[in-house]
Design a protein that fits this description.
This protein is mainly α. The chain folds into two domains: 1-93, Rna Polymerase Sigma Factor, Chain: A (Orthogonal Bundle); 113-189, Arc Repressor Mutant, subunit A (Orthogonal Bundle). It has eleven helices and no strands. The radius of gyration is 20 Å and the shape is globular.
Length: 196
């Protein structure tokens, strides 16, 4: 478990035990989703921390017996959107120390330009599939990951993304058509299409 969460959660033992049994099993899935949203390990880590802190703070509002995973994913998606809005309204800031440290680092070694999102999907799927999913726009990638990789229903995805079910279905349909076009040759080579 994330270290900051442990100190916050230990304050109320009974509430902590209930929260832990409901929410902790979903931490890896949330982290993977956070990486797909942020494309950065540190930002994903922070997003998971923020999600769990908010979830614990409002755990009294959670209805026992409902889908805790979907509830946590919705908190994460809303947190990500709100943070993005805040950052987009602020002018970009540059810290001189960061630039100086970066310069010192690249003098002695090369900069690794591997995209973290590609690394995330590579561990999950084959290279071609990984690249195809990573190339989707954020809206299409989000519904694809939530439905096809995480197994959420349309209703749960609609709740997580705060979009109507029709929009979720439309995005998923369009994302799958795009993936079909991008992966047709790959599927043929693997023997997944009918030979004519």
């Amino acid at each position: 478990m994330f270290p900051i969460l442990i100190s916050i959660l230990n304050d109320d033992e009974q509430l902590y035990a209930s929260f832990k049994s409901e929410a902790e099993p979903h931490m890896n899935a949330l982290y993977n989703f956070a990486i797909s949203l942020t494309t950065d390990r540190d930002d994903a880590y922070d997003l998971v921390q923020d999600t769990y802190i908010k979830a614990f703070r409002f755990f009294d509002k959670f209805e026992k017996g409902t889908n805790c995973k979907a509830w946590l994913f919705r908190i994460m998606k809303n947190t990500y959107i709100n943070d993005y809005r805040k950052r987009s309204k602020q002018p970009e800031k540059v810290d001189y120390n960061d630039i100086e440290n970066f310069y010192e680092e690249i003098k002695a070694s090369f900069v690794n330009n591997n995209h973290l999102e590609d690394e995330f999907f590579k561990n999950l799927l084959g290279d071609e599939i990984t690249e195809a999913i990573a190339s989707l726009s954020e809206d299409f990638r989000t519904v694809t990951v939530l439905c096809d990789l995480e197994g959420f229903s349309y209703e749960e995805i609609a709740e997580i993304t705060n979009a109507p079910i029709g929009t979720v279905r439309s995005r998923l349909h369009r994302a799958r058509k795009i993936l079909f076009a991008k992966l047709y040759k790959y599927a043929s080579n693997k023997g997944y299409t009918e030979k004519k």
